[in-house]
């Protein structure tokens, strides 16, 4: 969530980040793909308007994004078992 809040990335851009997209020395992330969930499948494509861009990474986020021992094609932001995060379901204030 901090990554989204402090960089302005969209959800799909954040979960589409790969290790090779991160330049932690220069504190930059290259946004070149977007991940979209359709049903149970995740489709990876180009970002909105098909434009690649780079965004600055705040220094305090760098330790959270430091990925050691992972290949360049691995997801940089992932959940358990290196699978992409899925967005939380909307609650709409339903009492359970």
UniProtKB/TrEMBL annotation:
Presence of the UniProt keyword Cytoplasm in the record: no
SUPFAM superfamilies reported for this sequence: DNA breaking-rejoining enzymes
Domain of life: Bacteria
Gene Ontology BP terms: DNA integration; DNA recombination
Keywords assigned by UniProt, alphabetized: DNA recombination
An annotated Gene Ontology molecular function: DNA binding
Domain annotation Tyr recombinase: ranges: 1-96
The keyword Endoplasmic reticulum is assigned to this record: no
Listed name of the protein: Tyr recombinase domain-containing protein
